[in-house]
Amino acid sequence: xxxxxxxxxxxxxxxxxxxxxxxxxxxxxxxxxxxxxxxxxxxxxxxxxxxxxxxxxxxxxxxxxxxxxxxxxxxxxxxxxxxxxxxxxxxxxxxxxxxxxxxxxxxxxxxxxxxxxxxxxxxxxxxxxxxxxxxxxxxxxxxxxxxxxxxxxxxxxxxxxxxxxxxxx
Length: 169
Description:
Number of strands: 5
Number of helices: 6
Distance between the termini: 65 Å
Structural class: alpha/beta
Shape: globular
Order of helices and strands: EHEHEHEHEHH
Largest sheet: 5 strands, parallel
Strand content: 15-25%
């Protein structure tokens, strides 16, 4: 059979990239919203050899998989290199990024324009929920390291791992 009837419908696919060291409720808010917009959401831990993370890449992947288990359309993996190469290899036409503030937009707009110029891949910006507009993994680690309460900022099992890793509490 030929023609439109024989073609399988194209899955709408997007990637949510980041370092996720560790994953926060702000990340999960963006991932959850993306999972409602796309058929498949690839959450990709981007590997930066210059940065020493608190959690290994494999630990981050495990935490993200646990945190996104309720979504049936989220795939988690890591990648070293240009995000556009990850997208090309997997036929992903869109990148989803959360924006916390105007300062995020300035940087992310330049990245989006570069990625589009390199590959034609589009970037969708989702404003973070006001609840998480200040939230970053770095801030969570810093507050937790000083013994501050970050229980409302990360999933319970992430808090447990974070507390154990930092030797706090």
